[in-house]
Amino acid sequence: MTATGNNYAEALFMLAREENLIDEFYDGLKLVEEVFKENIEYIQFLSNPSIPKSERITALKSVFEGKIHGHILSFLQLICEKAQAACFFDCVNEYYRLYEFAKGTVEAMVKSAVELTDTQKDRLIKSLEKRTGKSVTLKCVVDNTLLGGVAVEIDGQLLDGSVKQNLKRAREVIGV
Question: What are phi and psi for residue 159, nearest 5 degrees?
Fold first, then answer.
C-alpha cells in the first residue's frame, strides 16, 4: 500500500463522510475498479505523462461522466493530472477499509481447496463475527494448491487452517 494511495483515500473518504455519500462513493469506486481491472492498459494510458493531460482527462470523462459522482470523477482527474493513476488500486483498497470500519463490517478473504457450501459459509461468518465483533462478509476463492481446510485473511491477520499449513507446522516441529 502506498502512502500516496492512503492519503488520497483518506481525503476522499473524509469528503464522502462530510457530504453523507460514503455508500455512493463506494459504489462509484467499485464501478471504476471493475473498468480498470477489465482494461488494465487504461491505467497505463492515464498514467503516461507523454500523453497530453487534456487527452487523458477527455478519456476519463468519456467513460465515467454521468455514471459516477462528480467528486469521484474529479478525484480520477486529479490522479491522472499528477500521473498517479497507478496508485488507484491502493487508494480504493484503503477507501474500502475505511468504509468497512465506518460501517462496522469487515471483509474476509477465504481460500479453500474446494468451494464452500452455504452452511459452511454461514458457520464461518458466525465464527468470524464472534472473533472480530464486526459484521463479516466473505470473499471466497478456490485455491487448488491447498490440500484441504481453509485460509482466512481478515483485518490484516492470516488465520491459516489449511492442511498444507498444518503439515508445514508438523514438519517444523519434527525437524524435517
Answer: -110, 95
User: Which residue, 115, 137, 133, is CA-closest to 125?
Assistant: 137
124-162 pLDDT tens trace = 999 999 988 888 989 999 988 887 888 899 877 888 877
Q: Write the CA distances from 104 to 29, 108, 123, 156, integer angstroms.
A: 19, 13, 19, 16
Cα torsion 155, 150, 147, 145: sign: negative
How many Cβ atoms from other residues are within 10 Å of residue 156's Cβ?
A: 7
Taking the model in full, what pTM does it have? 0.68
Contact assessment for residue 122 and residue 133, using Cβ atoms and an 8 Å cutoff: no
How distant is the alpha carbon of residue 8 from its chain centre? 15
Rounded Cα–Cα distance for residues 132 and 128 (Å): 6
Cα–Cα dist 98/77, whole Å: 22
Domains and CATH numbers, the chain: 3-100 (1.10.520.20), 105-174 (3.40.30)
